[in-house]
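User: You have something folded?
Assistant:
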Amino acid sequence: MRKTGRRSRAVLAVLSAAVLGLTGCDAVGGNSPGPSGTDAQRVKPKPTPVWDRSPESVAAVGDSITTGFDACSVLSDCPEVSWATGSSEKVDSLAVRLLGESRAAGRSWNYAVTGARMADLPGQMAQAATRRPELVTVLAGANDACRATTAAMTPVADFRAQFEEAMRTLRGALPKAQVYVASVPDLKRLWSQGRTSALGKQVWELGICPSMLRDADSLDAAATLRRETVQKRVEDYNAVLREVCAKDRRCRSDEGAVYAYRFGTDQLSRWDWFHPSVNGQARLAEIAYRAVTAKTP
């Protein structure tokens, strides 16, 4: 009797556990909804991306490339064809691509200055910040390399400190503004393309980037070394731009795209064969738009 009683109790225990197990499965399994507030029902919100691919306003800082210098007429600015904020349909600037033509007219501003160097960027950033733009574009550094002599070029350490100061100036006023940083163009390639124009070389003698363009037809050892020295300095500047930008979570560089772009004669000013033409400005706008609207990896 005792053995039979123990077996009976064991069977009842197993049956009870089985029934409870089935009841538990029916409560949260199959096609039945689980209780509200369970982990199965809770949907976690997606984090807001740090980088906004559709900024609502744009300000530009930099040098003659961004002012459209020599794109429309000789030795003069032409901001309407600026790659960053211009209104020309031939360029389709970054601002127009992002905002549309009508909104870009009132929501984009150009603070670039022909002849500006990196030392001028903090002041330009302070001006741009007064507009509270959601995106600031930077293209500067060519004039730091384009000096009377290679010895007069901005030292790399100074270039870094000046760019860091410019970023601090912006961040002090606009902690959440986004920044797009374009690389300095390949000045040696511009020399190799432009030297095919007799007119271009005459304009170069007026003092355009003498460290690279002086004695344009000379291929002797001294001239070659001078150009290579300028080229190396541009590459160092571009490394600084990438490195400083990479430390800021709301900054994107073009990863050397402008430097790598193979400007041909169609992309160069027909007056100085060095600055971007209207076509060249359009190519810069394309590069910028791809970088700004690229999805975060």
Notes: The CA atoms of residues 243 and 268 lie 29 Å apart. The radius of gyration is 30 Å. The first strand starts at residue 58 and ends at 62.
